[in-house]
Amino acid sequence: MSGFFTAVGDMFNVATVASIVAGASGLLFATMGETISEKAGVINLSVDGSMMLAALAGFVMAFQTGTVWYGFPAAAAVGMVVALVIAYGNIRLSLNQVAVGFVMFALCTELSRFLGSSYVGRVPVAVPAWDIPGLSSIPFFGPVLFSHNIIVYLSMLTVLATYLFMYRTRAGLELQGIGERPEAAHSRGIPVNKLRYFYTALGGALIGIGGAAYTLDVKVGWSDRPTRNLGWIVLAIVIFGGWHPLRAAFGVLLFGALQAFALSLQPEFPSLSQVLPSIPFPAMILVLVVVNWQRLLKWLDRYPFLRAVLRSDPPTAIGTRFEVN
Asked: Which of 95, 170, 208, 290 has the fewest CB atoms within 10 Å, i.e. the most exposed one?
């Protein structure tokens, strides 16, 4: 039991919190990308495979060119193409988004394993560290928030930018409109399907950048399926976060904290060393079940403020096809 409390105490030291923030960059990019896509009404179920293939594309580009900054655009392009295939299949070909997304997930996963086999164990250049002068010396907050690199900072800014765009701009309201009431948006002259293409592509690009963040920053190098299962966690976090950027970002940090907690328990419980790393995955599913528990939702209906903080419903038209008459 003392080992358990020791692990809990370790969760709150500066180094651990800073590592959680640093390791969250890939999931933050991908979660914001999927949030944008689903807000527009398109479910990108390929996230897990798309992240993996994009991670490989970013790794290979950085490895071959010798500069990490070519890797991220390559990964974004791969994520964008995969997302556009799903959007085209639904909007143009009237195919089911979930079915196309699952096929793309399987295709991307197998392609990444096949194409990446010759790169296993190779290490490219990594994203250089960049402490922000002045801010990095602030006690606690300095090392936690301002002693990372530009990718980590950009992931934080992406969360803020996504929130401000969705809820503080006219274009953001249009984005929500095409995912909630596409017919009403169309009647006001908003090009629903064109915007769905655009936002699905944008979301796919962010998912691709999230994949590259793992092979070029979080875990530098390529291994067999380095982002395995993280795409499914992204989909769960989007639901957990109620399709809200800030709550989704909290879900990402919560998942990172669970991972850090599981790792800190390994020295105390060596007999469970093979089991502990998998704890964050069922834990996130449990949280998802609790958040969607019907009795809890009925109780929250009595307190509108708490319901607004803890829960929001999915976009009404998510997963549906809009056909212009």
From this structure: 170
**Distance, first Cα to last Cα, the chain:** 65
> Coil, helix or strand for 316?
coil
pTM value is 0.89
Q: Is the dihedral of CA 60, 66, 67, 73 positive or negative?
A: negative
Assess whether pLDDT exceeds 90 at residue 226: no
Q: Which helix (H) or strand (E) holds 104?
A: helix 97-116
- Separation between Cα atoms, residue 246 and residue 98, nearest integer Å: 25
Pick left, alpha or beta for residue 133 (phi over 0 → left; psi -120 to 50 → alpha; otherwise beta): beta
How far lies 192's CA from each of 34, 169, 184, 197, in Å?
18, 17, 10, 9
In the chain, count H helices and then E strands. Answer: 16, 2
Identify the CATH assignment for 2-310 out of 1.10.3470, 1.10.1660, 1.10.8, 1.20.1300.
1.10.3470
**Which whole number is the average pLDDT over 29-35?**
97
| Torsion over CA: 48, 50, 53, 55 (sign) | negative
d(CA 172, CA 22): 28
Residue 308 has pLDDT above 60, yes or no: no
Query: Given the structure tokens 């403020």, which residue do they identify?
Result: 305
Report the C-alpha gap between 93 and 99 in whole angstroms. Answer: 13
Where are any strands of DSSP class E within the chain?
129-131, 147-149
Amino acid at the residue 284: M
214 band by pLDDT with thresholds 50, 70 and 90: very high
CA distance 180 to 321: 12
**Distance between CA 246 and CA 253 in Å, rounded?**
11
DSSP H helical ranges for 169-244: 170-180, 182-187, 192-213, 230-240
Domain boundaries, the chain: 2-310
Q: What is the mean pLDDT of residues 233-248?
A: 90
Closest by CA to 43, choosing from 87, 4, 11, 9, is 87
Is pLDDT above 60 for 225? yes
Q: Quick check: 29 and 209 in contact, CB under 8 A?
A: yes
